[in-house]
Amino acid sequence: MTAQPSAAGADPVPTGRDQREIDPDDVLLSVRGLQVHFPIRRGILVERQVGAVKAVDGVDLAVPRGSTVGLVGESGCGKTTFGRAVLRLVEPTGGTVTFDGTDLRELDAEQMRRQRRQMQMVFQDPMASLDPRQSVESVLTEPLRAHDIGGDHRARVRELLDVVGLPASAASRYPHEFSGGQRQRVGIARAIALEPQLIVADEPVSALDVSIQAQVVNLLEQLQDRLGLTYLVIAHDLAVVRHIADVVAVMYLGGLVEQAPSDELYATPLHPYTRALMSAVPIPDPDVEESRERILLTGDLPSPAAPPSGCRFHTRCPFRQETRCDDERPALREIRPGHTVACHWAEDIEAGRIAPRESAVVEPDVSTA
Ligand SMILES: Nc1ncnc2c1ncn2[C@@H]1O[C@H](COP(=O)(O)OP(=O)(O)OP(=O)(O)O)[C@@H](O)[C@H]1O
């Protein structure tokens, strides 16, 4: 696995997946203090802003060139808004997004349009993101035309189809004629048509059958190796992210709560929220599955329009300590090289000095009963 990008001066390290060498200091995408606040307006004759949905509220994230960073969290935590704000498909209300040295928020609309050639998106639902009246050929030549790419477009379409594992005959067919997995291959072909550097993939496999998911994940990995792509993969499914990501960032209610190299995060989750998320993921080994202690995640995600004071997770946290957690928002701290966590008590929890509330723990014998 790669070292986490902020690990200053770290040497390039091979990743666990395929021995790619990634320099954690060669950051392609750097996000600092990113904010997306959606105004809440009221009023019949005169609309006034009465509040804001703080969908993304001060996120820092660095994505090294050639790496895959996974962004995980439950539905509504702000993952999609973050991904879209990185590409300025939704306008950030604060912070900076620097891509390959360019401050994207400084660009005007035309400059941003040209910049998007380097940054593409793969969506969750390939059907919704493909126009049903457009043939695959038309879908794939559209970005080439929009960016005035010359050359033989038909040949380029055949090449793109081949790269994503579809036959040349797919060019004349329409989205509804394909299976979900094939449609996602078309979506991926469209995303790589302009040879981008970065792909933001928002739940790229969660709409697909489990048997097809692995094929699409493998395709994404092959394309990364072949084309030197950098990925930001957004997913609620920790198993998918674990497989594909070098570094995983965990998001809760608009902010990051933990970030670490993938193997480390899965072996030693430090934030109570991450621990609860991990508890929900089944472990394939039945002996381990039966004997592990689970931390339950109770209650709903609070509203991002009125987030809790102090630590945003304190209302659901089984390790909450009064009153510091209620009053003081914890900063992300580097606890081990490349492993940052936003919890006042991470070391105490890890060392077992603070135990979870009993009601939040499912003991092994209970979970297997
Ligand atoms: N255009 C918008 N206007 C107002 N609120 C919005 C808008 N888009 C998203 N939100 C709110 O921002 C919060 C974060 O939404 P977002 O879709 O980014 O979360 P998510 O983690 O990607 O969830 P999901 O996986 O369900 O898409 C939610 O409360 C959502 O209702």
UniProtKB/TrEMBL annotation:
The keyword NAD does not apply. InterPro entries: AAA+_ATPase (IPR003593), ABC_transp_ATP-bind (IPR050319), ABC_transporter-like_ATP-bd (IPR003439), ABC_transporter-like_CS (IPR017871), Oligopep_ABC_C (IPR013563), P-loop_NTPase (IPR027417). SUPFAM superfamilies: P-loop containing nucleoside triphosphate hydrolases. Keywords: ATP-binding, Nucleotide-binding, Transport. GO terms for molecular function: ATP binding; ATP hydrolysis activity. Gene3D superfamilies: P-loop containing nucleotide triphosphate hydrolases. One of its GO terms (biological process) is peptide transport. Pfam families: ABC_tran (PF00005), oligo_HPY (PF08352). Residues 1-22 are annotated as: Disordered. The keyword ATP-binding applies. Residues 40-278 form the ABC transporter domain. SMART domains: AAA (SM00382). Belongs to the ABC transporter superfamily. This is Peptide/nickel transport system ATP-binding protein. It comes from Haloactinopolyspora alba.
